[in-house]
Amino acid sequence: MTINPSLPDLLLRPLLALAAAALIGRERGANGHAAGLRTTMLVALAASLATALSGVLLSTHGKVAGDFSTMDVMRLPLGILTGVGFLGAGAILKRGKLVQGLTTAATLWAVTVIGIVFGAGEYALGLAATALCFGSLYGLKFVEARLTQHHDGTLTVVTAGRDLPAGWADVLGGTRCTALLLRQGFDADTARLTSAYKLGWEGPAQAEPPTGLLRGVTALDGVVSADVQVEEASS
């Protein structure tokens, strides 16, 4: 960290932090995420200004002339990190087993650190961190989309009569899906049995219902309908 930086240097630091945050936050906002362009830019600006001010105050050795008190100037950027922790906690939502906002919280944390790096005058490190963060958010999502992940859903099968059709176990075994019975109900008026199963399967990140299972189930004698509701993945 440069002590007593020049005025052009002090102006350049927050500008670079804003540019880096704009690059990272633009896509987040375009996709409807909580931490968009303005949020990331404000966080990076605050972090860079606090760190730049710490560098200026370092020349005083934490003590102003004529004053007996001594201050720890590095508390300024640390305070920014603490504040961003509260912002990140507010971005995380949990609904049952579904957790959303983890990537948004991590993005806010990363943008804060990038702002601190630029505020300290470490331009090369800041540019490298920006490139790595941008690549992690937008480059790896194409790789992640091709990776095999575990998915959960609810399979609802409506059959005629009180019993499941023969061949159900064979269809399930041939699709490499797991099914756990959640509930069953028989409607005496329609003479139909409704069964709901907790379904699990492996597939790409963009979850789609296992079409092989649906085709196999609907082809069984006595099956009136079959439907799969896919649970959203945590993000």
From TrEMBL:
According to the entry, every stretch annotated as the MgtC/SapB/SrpB/YhiD N-terminal domain falls at 15-144
Q: Which UniProt keywords apply?
A: Cell inner membrane, Cell membrane, Membrane, Transmembrane, Transmembrane helix
Q: Which residues are listed as membrane-spanning?
A: 6-25, 37-56, 76-93, 98-117, 123-140
Coarse class of the primary localization is: membrane
Give the membrane topology: Multi-pass membrane protein
The record's subcellular location field reads: Cell inner membrane; Cell membrane
Give the protein family. Answer: Belongs to the MgtC/SapB family.
Q: What is this protein called?
A: Protein MgtC
What is the phylogenetic placement of the source species in the record? Bacteria, Pseudomonadati, Pseudomonadota, Alphaproteobacteria, Hyphomicrobiales
